[in-house]
Specification:
With about 725 residues, the chain is an alpha+beta fold. The chain is built from 23 helices and 33 strands. Strands 2, 3, 4, 5, 10, 18 and 19 form a seven-stranded mixed sheet that branches. The chain has a five-stranded antiparallel sheet with strand order 12-11-23-22-21, sandwiched between helices. Strands 1-8-9 form a three-stranded antiparallel sheet. A hairpin with a 5-residue loop joins strand 18 (about 470) and strand 19. Helix 3 crosses helix 4, helix 3 runs antiparallel to helix 5 and helix 9 runs antiparallel to helix 21 (about 570-585). The mean pLDDT is about 85.
Length: about 725
């Protein structure tokens, strides 16, 4: 027993000795390792520390962050905003942080985000789970400052924000093809957005590190250089007049394409450019507004693509057509200038003309013929036979010389992308010359035609058209300014004056009577071109006109593709536009009516009033009014203060809004009771007024667009 105990004691003593020896050796190993590492660190610090520090600093210096520039605005000639970049925020999530929070906190974050950025809670939860290992995930882009402030106030963990800019087009479809759009890839596409992208884009800024004395790192910020502002020659008011008139007839006649240009024939400045079909650049890749949601969704992807490409295309420069009779004044001007025809010559129209023996005759639109006509009457009646006779006096070389001098078959050099130059033959046989004489057989763009026509009425000069008057940088300095450019003189001033007078007869006695505006001397020319293939009998109808006759200040071209042949729509649309445009441009009436003081009212100053106060003031003076623009604040008026008008005349009130995102269209309340009107508008507008019976008057008028929650002042029948 004792012997066994001794053996056990000896065993434990030996094990303890071995254990102590192992601990000693392990301790010595770690001590040696620590001493060695300390030696190495000290050596590195003393001998190579500076080199390593420089390397670390160098890598820090190499890291940069980019600051996005603000894309430049696009404004009209009066500095009204058409396209702008507004401050927005991208919402960033840190999924790793969020997943580490308590369940109740996570749910609260998802609920708050869902309400503000309109993404379902389940979608946000799945997004976080799918990106569980990431520290940076963008859940939503271009969130407004107002919504972002709501999120910032909540102090949500794992959620932060980065500044960005969103492109906004506050006027929607306004001049859409001319402006173009800013696509999802961050590029300007079509129109001004594409043509001037390099100027509008701006230059990004940088946040970077910098060495000082090879030791200290400082943070330097190079500010972003914001893009330049593009100032257009377009006038917002004129563009609105044009769009209103065009939409009226488009809705009624349903053309496949339509366009309109209003410009200054003496400078080449374009005041308005409209193209149909249209799109909204805020939602450039869908046409639900234009076609209806059901129709759009029923289309195949290929059909949608075709519709979009057609809507994005600017018909004025990217589509060609046969101009028809609107070309006839150009031929007459060229023939007169070359002395190939005489002003006193007479032309006989029997309804048709055989150009080449054995071939079918070319008919006049008036089958029974116009009989004997003067040169002026040939134009007024748009006589095909008379024009073919005039063209026959010019050989092929002379004919084509003038076609080229007018700019047909060439680019106008307008600073817009995708311009077409049209089709022009290099040699004309008898048939080609005859068809050219009536504006068929060759093609041009609407812009080519209006520029060529302007040379006929402006003294004979072909000008370069332009839609951008200048570029202004972020310091409000003009970095580019456009100016009138004369390409060449096509005809003499004398011939130009003669044609300008001839074209008055088209309005007074000929085919352009629908364009006549009481009190103004208007000149112009109608056009009807039969499309290819001729047997389908489809037509492009157009009208080109100008005012005043003795000193043209404005010219307009209106084109409708595939509408009824004898509808007269283009000249009617021209009149609807010019009834407003001529007073707006302060083009004087040809004569003034003498009236007694009892029948006259003096126009008051209405600027800076709201439309409610302005309408009261005009009612008091027995003057009517028309509101042009969007909003409720009057920014300008025509006529100006102090002008005397006949009572019942209309004063133009030009309005603007400071809240384009809150605009609503005023409904038609006429014929409703006040109670029914309140039910109709709900909380969209406030109804101001009392009385029984039905509503007989409302301010603003139906169709006008004002800020949401604005009042509608009504008057009832009792």
């Amino acid at each position: 027993m004792e012997n066994k105990y001794k053996n056990k004691k000896t065993y434990f003593t030996l094990n303890k000795t071995r254990l102590n020896r192992r601990i000693f050796f392990i301790g010595m190993f770690f001590l040696t390792a620590i001493i060695y590492m300390g030696y190495q660190v000290t050596t590195i610090k003393l001998k190579k520390g500076e080199d390593y520090q420089k390397e670390v600093l160098s890598r820090m210096v190499g890291q940069e962050d980019e600051i996005s520039p603000q894309r430049g605005n696009i404004v009209d000639r009066n500095n009204n905003t058409i396209a702008a970049s507004v401050l927005t925020y991208d919402i960033i999530l840190d999924p790793k942080v969020i997943l580490g929070l308590e369940e109740a906190t996570k749910i609260a974050i998802y609920q708050t985000l869902s309400k503000v950025i309109n993404i379902p809670e389940a979608t946000i939860s799945k997004f976080v789970a799918d990106n569980a290992k990431l520290r940076y995930s963008v859940i939503s882009k271009n969130i407004s400052s107002e919504k972002t402030e709501i999120l910032k106030e909540k102090g949500l963990k794992g959620v932060w924000f980065e500044e960005s800019f969103a492109r906004k087009y506050p006027k929607g479809e306004f001049a859409a093809q001319l402006i173009g759009f800013f696509n999802k890839n961050g590029e300007g596409q079509y129109g001004i957005e594409q043509q001037y992208n390099d100027y509008i884009l701006g230059k990004p800024g940088r946040v970077f590190s910098q060495l000082q004395d090879e030791q200290i790192v400082t943070t330097e910020v190079k500010a972003a250089e914001n893009g330049a502002k593009v100032v257009l020659t377009i006038d917002e008011v004129i563009q609105q007049y044009v769009e209103s008139a065009m939409k009226k007839y488009i809705n009624e006649y349903k053309p496949i394409n339509a366009s309109a240009i209003i410009m200054n024939p003496n400078s080449g400045e374009i005041y308005s450019m409209y193209s149909y079909p249209n799109f909204n650049p805020n939602r450039y890749n869908v046409l639900e507004e234009q076609l209806g949601k059901e129709v759009w969704n029923a289309l195949t992807d290929a059909e949608k693509s075709d519709k979009l490409n057609n809507a994005w295309k600017n018909f004025n420069i990217q589509s060609t057509y046969e101009p028809g009779s609107t070309f006839k004044p150009l031929l007459v001007a060229g023939a007169l200038d070359e002395s190939m025809i005489d002003k006193e010559a007479k032309y006989t129209c029997n309804g048709s003309k055989v150009v080449v023996e054995g071939l079918a005759p070319i008919r006049c639109w008036k089958r029974e013929g116009h009989g004997e006509q003067t040169l002026e009457q040939v134009l007024a009646n748009s006589c095909n036979v008379g024009m073919i006779d005039i063209g026959s006096h010019m050989d092929s070389a002379a004919f084509l010389k003038y076609m080229n001098r007018y700019g047909f078959g060439q680019l106008t050099d307008i600073e817009l992308p995708g311009e077409e130059q049209g089709l022009l033959h290099q040699k004309l046989g008898p048939i080609e010359k005859a068809t050219y004489s009536i504006g068929q057989g060759f093609t041009c763009t609407p812009l080519q035609l209006i520029m060529a026509f302007s040379s006929v009425i402006n003294g004979g000069y072909l000008l370069k058209p332009y839609v951008v008057s200048g570029l202004v940088n972020d310091d409000n300095e003009m970095i580019y300014q456009n100016k009138t450019t004369v390409k060449r003189q096509v005809i003499s001033a004398e011939t130009s004056k003669t044609l300008a007078m001839y074209l008055k007869k088209v309005i007074d006695e000929g085919t352009g009577g629908n364009a006549n505006i009481t009190g103004y001397n208007i000149g112009g020319k109608t056009g009807t071109a039969q499309k290819q293939p001729r047997e389908e009998e489809k037509y492009v109808l157009s009208f080109i006109g100008y005012a005043p006759i003795n000193n043209p200040q404005v010219v307009g071209l209106v084109v409708f593709d595939e509408i009824p042949e004898h509808s007269g729509v283009p000249s009617k649309a021209f009149k609807d536009m010019m009834v407003n445009i001529l007073p707006y441009l302060e083009i004087e009436l040809a004569n003034s009516e003498q009236m007694t003081d009892e029948k006259l009212s003096k126009v008051p100053n209405l600027i800076n009033m709201d439309i409610y106060k302005a309408s009261e003031e005009l009612d008091r003076l027995a003057l009517g009014y028309e509101v042009i623009g969007i909003g409720s604040k009057v920014t300008s008026q025509y006529p100006a203060e102090g002008i005397t008008l006949p009572k019942d005349s209309e004063v133009k009130l030009y309005v603007q809004t400071e809240a384009p995102d809150r605009i609503m269209q005023v409904p038609n309340l006429l014929g409703l009771t006040i109670e029914d009107a309140k039910l109709l508008v709900g909380d969209t507008f406030a109804i101001n007024g009392a009385g029984n019976g039905t509503i007989i008057k409302q301010v603003p008028k139906a169709g006008h667009k004002v800020e949401k929650n604005s009042p509608i002042v009504v008057k009832t029948s009792e």
